[in-house]
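Retro notes (design track)

What went well: tokenization of the new backbones is finally stable.
What didn't: we kept losing track of which sequence belonged to which structure.
Fix going forward: every design gets posted as structure first, then sequence, in one message. First example under the new rule, 266 residues:
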């Protein structure tokens, strides 16, 4: 079910599968929303209660003053407090959400019992990243995307290569009859810029059980980096999945099985 809370006059919207299961905080990637984990919640069943927020600037949550990692972490903590989840919980993070999860586990170890990193690198390159408002390689389409339009077709056309696969099912109707994206393109550029840099200290800064679910054809997370992440952090297991960075969407059954396997062993 969908719920919301207020954080400094901002609305944070979230999905909560409910039930008596152990809580799993699931943090989506950029250009996405909490609804990306509906299938995971169904696959895990009653043993896990999946709580999936629309992170700041995404989905039904309001836009925020900034999109630095500390802001995403603060929102996650506010949600856990709002739900009365003060004991450690399992946290899953995909892509951008993985960086948030890694920092949450390192900076607030008493709140995280286990960490599921889904193809999230901890080395976000400075070269090729947004400078003077420009998008990094692979994200140039953000400059042509429109936040609102009179018709769905206009928004999908402006979204380019990701339109039909990742945008079509997520568009929001406006009161005046128009449509909007589930995120503002500039906010996404700011979120990419906010994640730049080296996150090794955060990755190595937690001690809870962890797993790296790695897409072996991932461009953001090369094999050598993935292997170093697993070998350098004690208590970290490794589950490879054939496919690219979008494997949670292109191979959902394999993704759900990998998450379930790790969680069952806790």
């Amino acid at each position: 079910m969908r719920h919301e809370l207020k954080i400094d006059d901002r609305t944070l919207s979230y999905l909560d599968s409910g039930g008596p299961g152990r809580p799993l905080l699931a943090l989506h990637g950029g250009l996405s929303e909490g609804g990306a984990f509906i299938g995971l919640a169904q696959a895990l069943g009653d043993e896990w209660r999946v709580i999936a927020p629309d992170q700041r600037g995404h989905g039904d949550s309001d836009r925020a003053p900034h999109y630095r990692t500390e802001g995403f972490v603060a929102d996650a903590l506010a949600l856990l407090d709002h739900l009365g989840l003060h004991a450690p919980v399992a946290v899953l993070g995909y892509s951008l959400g993985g960086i948030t999860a890694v920092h949450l586990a390192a900076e607030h170890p008493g709140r995280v019992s286990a960490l599921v990193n889904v193809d999230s690198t901890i080395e976000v390159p400075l070269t090729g990243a947004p400078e003077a408002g420009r998008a990094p390689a692979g994200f140039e389409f953000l400059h042509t995307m429109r936040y609102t339009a009179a018709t769905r077709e206009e928004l999908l056309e402006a979204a380019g290569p990701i339109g039909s696969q990742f945008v079509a099912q997520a568009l929001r109707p406006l009161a005046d009859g128009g449509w909007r994206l589930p995120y503002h393109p500039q906010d996404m550029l700011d979120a990419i810029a906010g994640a730049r840099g080296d996150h090794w200290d955060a990755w190595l800064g937690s001690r809870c059980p962890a797993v790296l679910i790695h897409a072996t054809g991932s461009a953001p997370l090369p094999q050598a980096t993935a292997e170093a992440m697993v070998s350098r952090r004690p208590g970290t297991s490794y589950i490879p999945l054939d496919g690219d960075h979008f494997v949670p969407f292109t191979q959902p059954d394999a993704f759900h099985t990998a998450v379930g396997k790790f969680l069952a062993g806790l």
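Added context from the reviewer: The CA atoms of residues 78 and 232 lie 31 Å apart.
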